[in-house]
Amino acid sequence: MYYQYLIYCLFLVFLGCQSSGIESSELFWPAAGRVTQAFRPSTNKAHKGVDIASSLGTKIYSAHEGRVVYAGQGFSGYGKMILLENKKRQVRTLYGHLSKIHVSAGQHLAKGIVIGEMGQTGRASGVHLHYEVLVKNNLVDPLIFHKN
Ligand SMILES: [Zn+2]
Q1: Which residues contact 80 (CB under 8 A, 6 or more apart)?
Q2: pTM surpassing 0.85?
Q3: Burial letters for 102-116: b for 16+ Cβ neighbours within 10 Å, e otherwise?
Q4: Distance, CA 124 to ligand 1 centroid (Å)?
Q5: How many angstroms does the Cα of residue 69 sit away from the middle of ligand 1?
Q6: Residue ranges near ligand 1 (ion) with Cβ within 5 Å
Q7: How many whole angstroms separate alpha carbon 94 and alpha carbon 58?
Q8: CA of 73 to the centre of ligand 1 (A)
Q9: What distance in Å separates the CA atoms of residue 79 and residue 97, rounded to the nearest whole number?
Q10: Which residue in 25, 20, 21, 19 sits closest to 145, CA to CA?
Q11: How many C-alpha atoms does 22 have within 13 Å on its Cβ side?
């Protein structure tokens, strides 16, 4: 009886490991442009994602399949932003400073769909996309998912 319980628990742990994380090739790079600010999560002037700069109106793409959990400009500094989540893969991506948002909260999206346009809304010194990736609630460097 006890052993059966133990094996069951180990099986659950195994399943947990199987469904966690995301492979390096699974995310779609959200915008064409130049990376102008790197990921610096733990410095004095922390930067929780990367900045990708290009011209106003540059298309922004969904990095993965998921549900739009937020689309609007209610978060100070981020301007017009989108938060996309895939609960099963435990990944969330955030897109900030947009000039236009083409999706709305609750919408389910495939990977590589146009979700908005690059802009300079919020606290932004120039036209760029601020892009954050969270895996299992932890910020990660978006560049590790895009080795190309
Ligand atoms: Zn930024």
Answers
A1: 72, 73, 96, 97, 98, 99, 100, 101, 116, 119, 121, 122
A2: no
A3: ebeeebebeeebebb
A4: 8
A5: 20
A6: 51, 130
A7: 16
A8: 16
A9: 5
A10: 25
A11: 28
User: Going along 1-148, which residue ranges are E strands?
Assistant: 34-37, 50-53, 59-61, 66-72, 80-86, 91-98, 100-101, 108-109, 114-117, 128-135, 138-140
Pair of tokens at residue 34 = 């130049």
pLDDT at 17: 45
136 compared with 17, residue with greater pLDDT: 136
Distance between Cα 64 and ligand 1 center (Å): 20
Q: Helices in the chain by DSSP H: which ranges?
A: 2-19
Going from N- to C-terminal start, the domains of the chain cover 23-145
User: Distance of CA 11 to CAs 19, 20, 118, Å?
Assistant: 12, 14, 45
- Across the beta sheet with 59-61, the strand order is 59-61, 114-117, 100-101
**Rounded distance, CA 20 to CA 22, Å?**
7
Q: Is the pLDDT of residue 74 over 60?
A: yes
Q: Which CATH superfamily is domain 23-145 in?
A: Glucose Permease (Domain IIA) (2.70.70.10)
